[in-house]
Backbone:
């Protein structure tokens, strides 16, 4: 529904080149200085979940959106909407998480705003962060529009951890195993990748809607196809188990510390090696490649040898996951 | 409460020079290019009110915060949190207002985000805008910290219109008269003022908490006093009438299309003339001046000849006014 609203209501009204690229960040030229600019609101329910909280999420999410343009994130804004009666102790914990995540990502929170609404006017706490980053090399041109036939597709690690962590906390499931959100700032991983090669064509973090949605978006924007192999996609065993139990497809689950890179074929192994040396990319895998046809579609070679179409997610299966 | 939260919880944790200036925008140096960066969330209730709506407010509020640093606003982000079931027709109207206000202020909306929460998870619609502007002249140093003894205080027009417009709509009062919000983008007015003189020391738009709160903030930040004259402060007659009826003090009512300028004495009349030539500054008045003592305080010469202290607003008399 959010996707449809954006496509139908917002995009046609605010037409301009930066917005129409539909990337995670807008890239702006300001007096010869190329900046990335992005925003996200965070409404995750519950605000505390295994492996993180809404504060860590709000910093990492925006740092990651900036990073997906190849920018180095520098400055964040922070806006807080609090429901009256939200415990001050929990607010302090969230602020502490924001502070630690900002330090980890080496970004400064330079401007902010706080609104308090009456009880029932909002559900606990919502955060918004916007961010500014700088593109340090003039040869960086990373966009969901740039995937080219033959490019290799690299996934930085296991999928589904964030989605399952939030759902299990929300629903009060005890899923055994040790399922924690992967929420983490990816800016240094991206810098490592750019050091290995500037031939990164597209980068995106598969958050809401998961890997399947992200790949469909890039395939549509670049007018290419993707062929991916199920056996190459890392899924941790407890996440796989939880998905089977709950009838969820891990391809559609949100991640908050993973990225997908579309990399020129010749550069792929160098980029992969650089990723594996970073703790946040140690499980990185080449999971497929860009093909000419069918355009705008994602095909999956299943473990049992078949091929199936991986559709865009219709409807929002899991609301308030981020 | 929001003010106290910011002072107690947020500021001590995110200490950095840009944030500690406590201005409406952070001013950032990026490769020799001075940028202003700001954010605000908008939770006004009701989202439609005489003279505007939450969409126009979200554009103007952030354009104005950028303008108060002397920057020329260029780019906005837009993030929307919508309650499930919010009428699509009203959403379209709000998007139309955003579009028109952005055109009026000559800013581009370049990045965005939409979250839908379940019914009861948020009250109708909340918006967040962040903005980037550029400081075009290297001699612009405008900050709430810069007010100096002898500076003249200029108010751009009548106060209280926005506050009364929202309250009357929310409470269903019919106050007679024609009370509309003053919500408007002030960037061109500020550019006109800067053309007249670069000796603007402080600029601020008296939104939440009104003129009284804004002046108290600047007085505290600059460690000076303000002496203002009640008779010089423009208040439209229906607003004055509504205040008397409702027991409200117009000095504490929110404005969304007004600014207060602290201007070097010699430059004041030139700046005032420039303001009066702009439709948004036609009722501008010199309402007082900066005095040495009492530091951090605002004194009002009343119409009947007395002098009283104008305090900081304690508690939030009017919630969800912006």
Residues:
């Amino acid at each position: 529904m959010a996707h449809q609203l954006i496509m139908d209501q917002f995009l046609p009204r605010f037409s301009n080149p930066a917005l129409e690229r539909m990337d995670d960040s807008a890239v702006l030229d300001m007096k010869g200085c190329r900046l990335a600019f992005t925003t996200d609101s965070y409404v995750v329910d519950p605000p505390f979940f295994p492996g993180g909280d809404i504060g860590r999420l709000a910093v990492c999410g925006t740092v990651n959106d900036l990073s997906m343009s190849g920018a180095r994130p520098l400055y964040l804004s922070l806006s807080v909407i609090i429901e009256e009666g939200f415990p001050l102790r929990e607010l302090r914990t969230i602020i502490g998480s924001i502070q630690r995540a900002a330090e980890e990502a080496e970004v400064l929170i330079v401007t902010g705003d706080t609104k308090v609404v009456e009880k029932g006017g909002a559900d606990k706490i919502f955060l918004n962060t916007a961010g500014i980053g700088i593109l340090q090399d003039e040869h960086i041109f990373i966009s969901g529009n740039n995937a080219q036939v033959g490019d290799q597709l690299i996934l930085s690690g296991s999928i589904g951890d964030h989605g399952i962590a939030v759902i299990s906390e929300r629903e009060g499931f005890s899923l055994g195993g040790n399922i924690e959100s992967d929420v983490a700032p990816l800016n240094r991983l991206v810098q490592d990748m750019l050091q290995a090669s500037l031939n990164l064509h597209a980068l995106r973090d598969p958050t809401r809607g998961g890997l399947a949605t992200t790949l469909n978006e890039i395939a549509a924007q670049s007018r290419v196809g993707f062929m991916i192999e199920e056996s190459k996609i890392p899924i941790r065993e407890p996440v796989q188990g939880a998905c089977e139990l709950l009838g969820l497809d891990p391809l559609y689950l949100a991640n908050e510390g993973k990225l997908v890179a579309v990399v020129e074929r010749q550069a792929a192994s160098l980029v992969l090696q650089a990723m594996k040396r970073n703790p946040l990319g140690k499980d990185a895998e080449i999971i497929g490649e860009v093909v000419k046809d069918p355009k705008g579609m994602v095909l999956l070679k299943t473990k049992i040898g078949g091929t199936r179409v991986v559709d865009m997610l219709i409807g929002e299966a899991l609301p308030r996951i981020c």
